Amino acid sequence: MTVTAAIVLAAGEGTRMRSSKPKVLHTFAGKTFLERVMSSVEALGPATLTVVVRHQGERVAEAARGYDPDVTIVEQDDIPGTGRAVQCAMRQLTAGGDLDGDVLITASDMPLLDTGTLRALLDYHAASGDDATVLTTVLDDPTGYGRIIRAPDGDVLKIVEQKDANSSELAVREVNTSVYVFDAHALAAAIADLDADNAQGEFYLTDALKAAKASGKVGAFAAPDPLSVEGVNDRVQLAALARAHNLRVCEYWMHEGVTILDPSTTWIEDDVTIGRDATILPGCFLQGGTAVGEEAVVGPYTTLIDATVDAGAHVERSRVQESHIGRDANIGPWTYLRPGNELGEGSKAGAFVEMKKAHIGDGTKVPHLSYVGDADLGERTNIGGGTITANYDGVHKNHTTIGSDVHIGAGNLFVAPVEVGDHVTSGAGSVIRHDVPDDAMVYSENTQHIVQHWKPAWER
């Protein structure tokens, strides 16, 4: 079924996070709470998507517009409460006339709220003919949640916030998830006379369900997966939910034919893809849009951020960001690939190597203790240890080109811009400032001087 309007509540401060950042802008598996909830709601195709902001409203609004430029931003006034947030949203949504159809309302602190759960809620609401439907779940420990109070026949009577609940109500384990569907006309009527007569002194949206029940029918739909509607109020809950979600992600990939030796120390974000028979060793973080090919080996202790690792490659104890590692390449240990690298088939970036915007040809090896930045290296070239491409002159980043089948001696320094041809050999310790033609040998003078019987100044 279609949604006339969707209202995402993002006005709260989230004081229990104890953060200078609004709670909804904290991240979960690589995306903010707000982005994840907005994405799930947008997939339903609502005619209007509205985000209500208050605490650090400009910051939250800017983030929301970054996720969806067409989002409608509503600023909640100084009157607190979710009920007041919906009043402000409905005032703006009905400024041009009455709304017809259904309105979806959701909190923004449920990072695992998914489109499938929301669609099931909408389908249930449509089939039941209710004026309002609340999404619920059953928790072993319902502390902190509003309780769903039902009549003996199962109908929803009311929702009681924990601070307003008596002992029998506190024993109820079915809780409110802060996700609702209302008929637009029923919602407008239900929020018209909200008040702050409660322990919190706030306008509760849950009170709107009482009003809706007085004039119509209120139903409840239990979420199939309690994890999908679990809220985050503090960093302890955030860590626990992230751990539970990550375990599911790891189990999914293991069922798809990926070997993960230690899921408890392996973190894989939602947009990552991994090929069959790949192996992920302990201590790895796979983030963003990272793609790992078949039979590749990642780890141990490796971070991949928006990286592509082709089949058969091995990346060990390294950090790789926005780079492409070719088939059967060997990276690490202790390698840092900054954004923009392209490493060819069978290439190598060894221990304590750093690269940035480097193109490394097939079979070319940069074994250890080197920096290669803004450079093109041909095929089957070997770079001696301690080699540096000096790419920055204080104003511009300059380019180094080294051809194929080149042997670079240890401790070379290439002062860019400079171009070295194919089949070149360089002597150890060379400083190469000028272009070198094909099939040449290049070295620079470095006279050795010895001072006998020398002592340091302090000893003299």
Automatic annotation (TrEMBL):
Annotated binding of acetyl-CoA, by residue: N391, Y392, A428
Main location: cytoplasm
Co-factor remark: Binds 1 Mg(2+) ion per subunit.
Gene Ontology terms for molecular function: glucosamine-1-phosphate N-acetyltransferase activity; magnesium ion binding; UDP-N-acetylglucosamine diphosphorylase activity
Enzyme class: transferase
EC number in record: 2.7.7.23, 2.3.1.157
GO process terms (BP): cell morphogenesis; cell wall organization; lipid A biosynthetic process; peptidoglycan biosynthetic process; regulation of cell shape; UDP-N-acetylglucosamine biosynthetic process
Protein name per Swiss-Prot or TrEMBL: Bifunctional protein GlmU
